[in-house]
User: What shape does this take?
Amino acid sequence: MIVAQAKPIEEILEMIDKYDKILLVGCKGCVAVCAAGGEKEVQFLASAIRTARKTQGREIEIREVTLERQCDPEYVEQIRGFAGDYQAILSIACGVGVQFMAEHYREIPALPGLNTSFMGGALEQGVWSERCQGCGNCVLHLTGGICPITRCSKSLLNGPCGGSSNGKCEVDPEVDCGWQLIIERLKALGEFESRFMEIVPIKDWSTSRDGGPRKIVREDMRQ
Amino acid sequence: MDYPPNVKLIRVPCSGRVDSVHLIKAFEEGMDGVYVAGCLEGECHFLTGNLRAKKRVEYVKGVLTTLGINPERLRMYNLSAAMGSRFVEIAREMTEMIRSLGPSPVKTGAGREFPQEQEEGEEQ
Assistant: This one.
C-alpha cells in the first residue's frame, strides 16, 4: 500500500487559516489501512481543527467526507454536487488523491493533510516499512524476493558495498544491509552460487523516475 | 461517598473502547477536563484494553498541547470496580485541578493557554 503520515496539525492550521468553510476528504484506500487518512482520521482531524479554531474564538465549518478512493474519477466525482460550496478541499489521501482533487475541482484549492511517505507494508500494528520504489522493472526473481533497489540504501544491483557491517547498513545502524538479507535468502534457497556470482548488468532506469512521469495505457481496457 | 456533580459519567464496556476521536470531541464540545478511568494495569478483562487507552490518552495529550490546550486537562486513572472511595477521590482531585486551571479556552475563545514556545518542554 501507499503509506502516509499526518502532517503536523500546526502546518495544517496554517494552511487553512484564511478559510472558514472547508471540505475535509478522506480516502478508504491505502491511507485508511495505514491509519492516516481514513474515516476515523477525518473525524479526528476535523474535531482537532474545530477545537483549535474555537480556542481562537473563530468558528470553522467542516464537511467530513470519506471516498472509496481518491485516485479514481468515479469516486472523486461523488463530491461534485457540493464541493463548490466550500472555500478549499483538505484532502487526507496520498499525493495522488490531492492531485486528483485539484484536477477535478479546478476552482477550489486542494490542500494536502498528509505527507505521502512510501510504498510498503505493516511489520506489526503501528509499524510500516518501505518495500518498493516502483522502478518499473522488477528484479525480485534474481535477488531472493528482497528488493535491492529499496532495501539497499544505495540501490546497488551488485552488492554489498563496503559500508555493510555485521549485517547493518552504514547509513543507519538500525537499517539492515539489503544485500546481507539477499545473500542469506539466496543461501537458504540454495541459489547463492548461481545467482550471486552472476554480475547483474547496468539497469535501465528509464522505466523508473528517470524517464519522467510515467503512464500505463491498456488498450484492451480502454473505452 | 458523594462525588462532585460536575463529573459526567460515560460508560464504556472497557477503557479500550475509548478512542482518540471520543477524547478530542469531548474537548471540542467544550469539556474543561476529561479523564479515562480504566481497570488496574494487568487486570484488564480483555487483557490490554486499559493499556491501549493509556496510549491513546498520551497521544491526545500531545495533540492538545499542539492546539494550545493544557494537556493536564486530560488524564488516565487506573482503579478497580471495587475501589469506590478511590473513584470519589479521583473525581474530587480532577475537579479541583480543573477549577484551578479555569474554563477551557475552547469555551472562552481566549487563545492558547500557554505560548507556543513551551510546547517542546510540555509535550508528554
